[in-house]
Design brief:
Order of helices and strands: EEEEEHEEHEHE
Structural class: alpha+beta
Number of strands: 9
Largest sheet: 6 strands, antiparallel
Number of helices: 3
């Protein structure tokens, strides 16, 4: 699926799950009509907080064809929109979204070497692009790191359990700052 062939649309989705991944990052699972939820790996969506406020988030799952998708959202208590979104997710079972957006997608036909580097929730955009690539090209390096505390590397325990043997080049780099 090409990002160029998908048209951005506004729709209402069901919030099917909200799960804390660490003290600062939570996973949100959304569901809608399969054809309306189509997206290419690396694309993002926008969530509506109110009529004038839309906030963008990278889609952290490949298009499964079943109308579900996953977001990995970092909560910033000092930011107004972050507080509003967290409160909204505690009471809402539906959200209005615009998707898909963005052209930063992986060419799945390419056999060129690929180097992916991610930190924190920047991993969300790379996750759907990289997973199939590790199966077809297990020699591509992937580096994933955190920032100020080790809990910031929230996918550290999850990824190796999903295929350590096929992901021999996956490296976790702790880039911790002791400020």
């Amino acid at each position: 699926m090409s990002a160029r062939t998908l048209t951005c649309k506004t729709l209402t989705c069901q919030v099917t799950a909200v799960e804390d991944l660490n003290p600062d990052v939570f996973k949100v699972t959304l569901a809608g009509r399969a054809e309306a939820m189509q997206h290419a790996p690396g694309q993002y969506l926008e969530l509506m907080l109110d009529e004038a406020t839309w906030v963008p988030f990278s889609i952290a799952s490949a298009d499964r064809g079943d109308g579900t998708l996953e977001l990995q959202i970092q909560h910033w208590p000092e930011r107004n929109n972050s507080q509003r979104l967290r409160q909204l997710l505690q009471v809402a079972n539906q959200l209005t979204v615009r998707l898909p957006s963005g052209d930063c997608v992986l060419d799945t036909q390419s056999e060129r070497p690929l180097l992916l580097i991610a930190a924190g929730t920047g991993f969300a955009q790379m996750k759907p692009s990289s997973k199939p690539r590790f199966v077809t090209s297990p020699h591509d390096p992937f580096h994933y790191g955190g920032r100020t505390v080790s809990t910031a590397i929230y996918m550290r325990k999850t990824l190796p359990a999903n295929g350590r043997s096929s992901m021999k080049t996956l490296r976790f780099m702790r880039s911790l700052n002791s400020r």
